[in-house]
Structures are given as structure tokens and as C-alpha cells.
Design brief:
single chain; alpha/beta; Alpha-Beta Plaits; Oxidized Rhodanese, domain 1; 3 domains; 5-stranded mixed β-sheet; 4-stranded parallel β-sheet; 10 helices; disordered N terminus; Rhodanese_C; TrhO; tRNA uridine(34) hydroxylase
Amino acid sequence: MEKHTNSITENPVSTSTNYQVLLYYIYSPIENVVEYRDIHHQFCLENNLLGRIIIAPEGLNGTVSGLAEDTEKYMAWVKSDPRFAKVDFKVEKVEKHAFTKLYVRIKKEIVHSELPVNPLEQTGKHLEPADFKELIKSDPNVVLVDMRSNYEHSVGKFKGAVTFDMENLRELPDHVNEIAHLKDKKIVTYCTGGIKCEKASAYLLSQGFTDVYQLHGGIIKYGLEEGGEDFDGKCYVFDNRLTTDVNSVNPVIISKCHICGTESDRMVNCANPDCNEHLPICEKCGHEMEGACSVACKENPRKRPYDGTGYYAKTTVGYKPEIAFRTRKNTKTLHIVEELGLNP
């Protein structure tokens, strides 16, 4: 395959508002993950797309940003593959690229969970946003369960939802006992875009929960299609926006500045990479603390320069954007490929 150098590794400057962010996933077996990773990466490079895409034997998971015409072309291209024809894209309008780089990686799972389930065999019943809205309004006995990490639901969640103090989905088995008394209730799981719920709802069913649903398309789709009513706060997203507005009906702020305690839904990634906590910090405190969440973090010699956003692009050692970069040069990817029994 011809070498193609990514000339858009850094965020291009543009005043156009004609950009879109795509959020999507699909569980559909991929046998040729190495070959498909290269083809997929090449397409993104040629169409000026940035973001994070995971290719795994169980399917695709991605968040991509670009000009509207480029993202429309990308959606059509992905769906042209029969394996991914049913993929559901959530599309948000933005003013510029929501990423500064492009990563297309091979991993063992499209969402890291290590849960012993297969969403293609069993998962919770899907609720479209309109049906979800009707259900939570008409049935007071429905229990909403947030399957996201603690820092995500700290800045926004559905009214009355059950949340877990977990760092990632791998910890779900350690917290499922907290809702064990609800096994006979109607459980509705939700997350940002729906992907975590595919495995989380399947896991609940495997643990004896009898009536399990999931919000199809997650919080983002609910906001886009139904106005986000009764979602309090903002939705944490994994791009340089950090949060996005969801509720246009009855919005409220539920989080407080970590520094001064005033109401704030402005999420900041601590400027100290040794800390790296994601916390709500108001604009005033953000500038006074130079993006740090404490005095100790502010004084840390490794503290990153604060540009007022609180977002820092992840630095990945060993990953290069060039399409000619082969998996054998990346020991982490090579380990995954070998573990999956694939030929790099």
C-alpha cells in the first residue's frame, strides 16, 4: 500500500461552522482486522478526518470529526460495507474539528470491559429515544442505571438514576451487588452513545436480572432526537470539547467547581499529567490555578501549559499517523494481534 503521510496531525485553523462530530459503534465480526485497519486509516487520511477509531474482531467503535461533506462521505463509505450497513451514526454540528489527531487502532474489544458476554447473542431490549422518554414518564417503577465512569456522571446524569463509583466498565462486577435488590424491576441502562450498555445489559441478564432495557444510541441520540428532557447537567464526551449540551427542555447544572464550590459544568482535565483527574472547574479558578486541580498539581514541574480549555491531547508513544506504519513496530499492538492469532 502506498505510503500516505498525514498532513493534518495538528488541528487546522478554521472559522467555518460546517463541521460535524460522528459517534458510532457496531458489533459485527471482522476477520481481517489488520488489513481493514489500514484501509480504514487510509480513507480517514484522504478525507481529512480526525478522531479515535477502534477496530476489533467484534466490530467498530469510533468518534470522528471533520467538515460536513467529509463526514457525510465517511458515513456512506462505512455503510457501504455489508458488515456495517446497520451502523447508527449520532451526528453533532460543531464549529471546528473536535480532535487534534487521528488514531485508528486494533484492540481486543471495541469497549474495554472484560465482561464474559457477547452482545450478538444476548443483550438488553433496545429502546429508541422516543420510547425511552415515554417509558420514564409513564412508569414510575422504572429504574435508570448509569453505566458510565464516575467522572462522567459527576457532570451530568438522568434525574433519579442509579450511578456507580467506578473508573471503567471492567469494575461493573464489583458494583452489581448495589442493585441486586432490583432484579425483578424494569431496569433501563444508559451511557454516552449506547456501546457500554450492549455489554452491561447483557451482563445484568447473566446475573439474574429479568427485565433489562437499554437506551439505544445513548444520551447523545436522546438529546438530538428528543431534546434531552430530564438529563441534568452536561454529557461528558471523549474529544476536546470534554462536555456537550444535551438538554434543551429543562436544563440544570448539577456539578460544582472543585476549587471554589460554585455551580459549574465546565469540565477540566487537570494540567498535571501525574494527576490527570477530570473535574468541574469554573473559568475563574481554571485560570487562577493554571488548569490544575490543587496547589500541589499547579506546582508540579511536569504541569502542562493551560490554554483555557482544560483539554490535552493524549500522547501515545510508538504510534505514527503514516499509513506505512506497520503493527510490528508497535509492541502493544503486536501483542494484541498475536494474542488474537492474527498475522500482522
